[in-house]
Design goal:
The protein contains 9 helices and 8 strands. The strands form 3 sheets. The chain has a 4-stranded parallel sheet, with helices on both faces. It has a two-stranded parallel sheet with strand order 1-2. A two-stranded parallel sheet has the order 7-8. With 248 residues, it is of the alpha/beta class.
């Protein structure tokens, strides 16, 4: 089958798929995922108590257990003794043993009362969820090809803390709305989270920057325009490749 153009959601995705599928690099464009940034009001970033957030599938592979470990460690700091953990996302029956074990661990540490788990929510509910967060982190050590949760947080002005893995570095380079940590270094996640949770002014600056850049580079209108330009190129007989619209 002849294909004039392929679209990858990130350079990370492009670089992985080209050798895997044997694609012609000249026919692969990068156009990121977009969201309607205008429907996300700016979050207030609560500071008393601060709230650490997670927005993804409520599973072990997505890093919820790792974030819970960091949450327990951070609460040892007197400045963060009141820290809360809010996690939102769907789950499957396969996740049930992990979630039961997570609850037992948090109950054993005397911290379960500071934890709230929300099911996968519709857009208005997710917006309310994001407005209850001070910082968001989905610590998937293996990374992802993009991470829609990053855009939702950034559009809301919520700063993020992510591992230097997958497409997370290129998304944050484009939004400038968060910080990266080295996933293989012990304590790195805790240090990065603490630096924002104990410095609300810095967190607010990062959140504002992310919100502005998300609206500029990842709004649906901008992404649609880039996609339409690629379609026009293909329709006019061009190869349609090598567009890099990540903005980073």
């Amino acid at each position: 089958v002849h294909v004039s153009a392929f679209v990858a959601v990130s350079r990370t995705c492009r670089d992985r798929m080209i050798p895997w599928l044997g694609l012609d690099p000249g026919r692969v464009s990068v156009i990121p995922i977009g969201i309607d940034t205008g429907v996300y009001p700016a979050a207030p970033l609560p500071g008393d108590p601060p709230v650490l957030g997670f927005l993804s599938r409520l599973g072990e592979a997505q890093g919820l257990g790792r974030l819970a470990d960091a949450f327990l460690e951070l609460r040892r700091d007197p400045r963060l003794a009141g820290l809360r953990l809010h996690a939102c996302g769907g789950s499957t029956p396969a996740d049930a043993p992990f979630l039961r074990g997570l609850r037992r661990r948090l109950e054993g540490a005397g911290a379960w009362q500071a934890v709230s788990l929300f099911p996968g929510l519709d857009l208005p509910q997710r917006i309310r969820f994001l407005h209850g967060l001070s910082v968001l982190s989905v610590p998937m050590d293996q990374g992802e090809d993009f991470g829609l949760f990053l855009l939702e947080a950034q559009a809301s002005g919520v700063p993020v803390v992510q591992p230097r893995a997958g497409a997370f570095p290129e998304v944050l380079a484009a939004t400038e709305g968060g910080v990266l940590y080295e996933p293989g270094r012990p304590g790195a996640l805790e240090e990065a989270l603490s630096a924002l949770l104990t410095d609300p002014a810095r967190a607010a600056r990062l959140g504002a920057a992310g919100r502005a850049r998300a609206a500029e580079r990842f709004d649906l209108a901008a992404v649609a325009a880039r996609t339409a330009a690629l379609y026009r190129s293909v329709a006019e007989g061009g190869p349609g490749g090598r567009v890099d619209a990540t903005g980073s």
